[in-house]
Amino acid sequence: IVRQAPGLRPTPYTLAYVDLDDGVRLLAQLDHPGREPEIGMPVALQLAPLALDDGSARLGYRFAATDGGQA
Fold first, then answer.
1. Which of 39, 51, 54, 59 has the largest count of CB atoms under 10 Å?
2. pTM of the predicted model, to two decimals?
3. Dihedral over alpha carbons 7, 13, 17, 18 (to 10 degrees)
4. What does the pLDDT look like over 9-29, one tens digit per residue?
């Protein structure tokens, strides 16, 4: 859990390693509202605003927990 971040990025947020099917591992923000993150949980890639800069959003990628229907 990240509690201090540079710039105008809202905190706290969770960072997690995500292993993709093709063997690539990414360190990314994990969105998991109402759930505790756990190893092996299914996630989906999202394009989302991650920080505000002079009133405009900076887009980036993050992963969001899913119900297991898609990974």
1. 51
2. 0.75
3. -110
4. 777 889 999 999 999 999 999
